[in-house]
Amino acid sequence: MNIVVFTKSTPDTAAKVEVDGGGKVTWGNAQLVLNPWDEYSVTESVLLKDAHKVNTTAFAIGDEIHNDALKQALAIGMDNAIRIWDAGMSGQDSLGFAKSAAAAVKKLGDVGLVIFGKEFVDVGTDAQVYQLARLLGCTAIGAVSKIVAVDFNAKTIKVERMVEEGKQTLTAPLPAVISVLKDINEPKSPSFIGIRKASKAVIPVWSSADLGLGEAASGAAAKVSTVAYRNLPVRAGQVEIIEGGSERERAEKLVNKLLEEKVI
Amino acid sequence: MSAVFVWIDQFKGKALNASWEALAVGRTVANAWGVPLTAVVFGQGIENVVTLSFHYGADKVVKCEDATLADYRLEPYAALLGKVVGDAKAVIGGGSTRGRELIAAVSADLNGALLSDVTELSADGGKLNATRPVFAGKVLSTVAPSGDGSVFITTRSRAFAPLTPDASRAGEVESVAPVLSEGQISTKIEGFEETKGTVNLSDAAIIISGGRGVGSPEGFAPVRELADVLGGAVGASRAAVDAGWIPYPHQVGQTGKVVSPNLYVAAGLSGSIQHQAGMRTSKVIVAINKDPDAPIFKLAQYGIVGDLFKELPAIAAVFREKLGK
Ligand SMILES: Cc1cc2nc3c(=O)[nH]c(=O)nc-3n(C[C@H](O)[C@H](O)[C@H](O)COP(=O)(O)OP(=O)(O)OC[C@H]3O[C@@H](n4cnc5c(N)ncnc54)[C@H](O)[C@@H]3O)c2cc1C
Ligand SMILES: Nc1ncnc2c1ncn2[C@@H]1O[C@H](COP(=O)(O)O)[C@@H](O)[C@H]1O
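Above: query sequence and adenosine monophosphate SMILES. Below: predicted holo C-alpha cells.
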C-alpha cells in the first residue's frame, strides 16, 4: 500500500518576492524550501508509515528547482521521490496539474492515501486537492486537523476537519485525497541518516509520455493562462503616531480618528 | 445563452456573507454577458436563504431541499451542482472552505477553467480577467480563461462587497431532486463541535490581534475585551499560537488565515513578513507596540508606541463610552 504526498519548492517564507522589470517573479538569492504547508503532509506520511506498514512516495510536478523539496521530503523520512516534468508541461493550470497528478498516482498503483498541505503558496491554491480526487473518482477531504483512525486493510479513514463554524468528524472509504492543517502534527526535522540518503538520491523524472498523458496536461491545453504578474500596490501614506500625555488621551485621539474613518 | 450560476453556501439555514459577495460578482458577469443570474441553494430549512438570494441579486433560484443535503458533504453536493449547472458559462462560489472545494471539484468533473481565490474581476466587453494573489500574497497575478468553455470562479472572502439587499426583488424558484441517495454516499458525518462565541476570522469586519507581547494565555484578556466591545474577532501571531496561548484557528498569516477586515488592530506583534501576508489588505491597520522600530509601524496607518496592557483597556473604555455600551 502506498501513501503519496505532492509537494514543491517555494522561496523561503521570509523572502522578498517581487516582479522584476521583465515581468518575472523573483526572490533574489533567497533559499528554496519545502512549501511550508507540506512540512505537515510529509510529516504525517512518515508518522503513518511508522505506524502501518506502508510505503511513502513524494511527487513534485515541475522543473529541477523542485528537487530541493523532494530531497527534503526524503531527509524527513519518506521512502521515494519522483519528479514529474517535461518542457511541454510549462504553463499548465491547476486542472493540468491535477491530470498529471492523477496519471502519476495511477502509474504508481495501490495508493491508499494522497496527502497535500493546505495549499501551494506559490500558486496560492488548494484547487488541485479536489480536482485530483474527482479525476481519480475517490473521496476528497480538505482541512483535516486530525486523523482519528485509518485502516489500510479495511480501507476506511476517520478524520476531524475544520470548517468555518467548527470541527466536523467524518468517516470515508479509502482511497482518499486529503489536505492537512498545521494542527495535525509537530513537523519532523530531517534526520542525520535522512540527510545522507537525500544527498545521494538521484531523483527519477517521469515525463508526460511516461504517464501516457498526451496533450491533456500540457501548457498548451491549459484552460487558464497567467497574463501577467505585478507587484502589490504600495500602501498609501505613512504611519501617524498618536501622541499624548496619557493612555487615555491617546485612546481618545485614536478612537475619534477611527470613528471619522467610519471603520467601526 | 445559459445562465451564470452562483452556489450559495449556508450553515443551518443561514447564508455565509461570502455567498452574497459571490452573488455580487455573478451579477457583474451576468450583466456583462446579458444572461440571467441563478442562485443555487442546497440543504434543509433553506426558505429564508432562497428569499434572500433574490434580495442580493439573483434572478432565479434552483433549490434542492433534502435530508441527504442537510449537512454539506462534497460527494452529494458536487454530483448535484454538476448536474444543475450543466454546460453553464460561469459557476461562482464564495471563498469559504466548502465553496473552494465544491467549485474546484465540479470544475474537474466538467473539465472547465478554474479561477480560484479571486480578489478582483473584470468582465469588460464580456471578457473575464481576474486578479489572484500568489506567493502568499506577496505578488499579484492576472489570469484569464483561454477558450470558451465553462468558467469556474471562487472569490476571496471580503474582497468584494455584496449588493445592497432589495427586499422587493423576487423570482422563479425551481426545485430539483438530489442525484445521490444516502446509500450511494460513502462519506458519513459522525459528529460536529461548534466553535462558540467567537466571530469567524475570515468574515470579520474588525479584528484585534495579539502577538508574543501578550506574554501568556491570560494576556489575551485586553485583546478579547476590545474585540468584544467592537463586535470583532480575535486574531494572533504564530508566536502566540506556538506558545500555546491561543488555538491555531486564530492564527493570521502565511500559515494561518488570510483576512481583510475594515479595521485590524495589531497589539504586541512585530509584523513579520509572514504575518503581513495574512493581513496586509486590511483597510485600516492600527499598531500598538513598545518598540518604535517594529516593522508593523511601516504598514500601519495609526500607531501607538506603548504598552498594550495600558493602551488596549484605555481604547476599550473610550469606545464603550462613545458607543454607549
Ligand atoms: C514557515 C513559516 C511560516 C510562518 N507563518 C506565520 C503566520 O502565519 N503568522 C505569523 O504571525 N507568523 C508566522 N511565522 C512566524 C514569523 O516569522 C514570526 O516569528 C512571528 O510572526 C512573530 O510573532 P510576533 O510578532 O508575535 O512576535 P515578535 O516578533 O517577537 O514580536 C513581539 C512584539 O511585541 C512587542 N511587545 C512586547 N511586549 C509588549 C507590550 N507589553 N506592549 C506592546 N508591545 C509589546 C515587541 O516590541 C515586539 O515587537 C512563520 C514563520 C515561518 C518560518
Ligand atoms: N494550480 C496549480 N496548482 C499547482 N501547481 C500549479 C498550478 N498552476 C501551475 N502550477 C505549477 O506551478 C509551476 C509554475 O507555474 P507558472 O504559473 O506557469 O509559472 C509549474 O510547475 C506548474 O506546473
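The helical segments of chain A are 38-51, 67-76, 94-108, 127-136, 192-200, 247-260.
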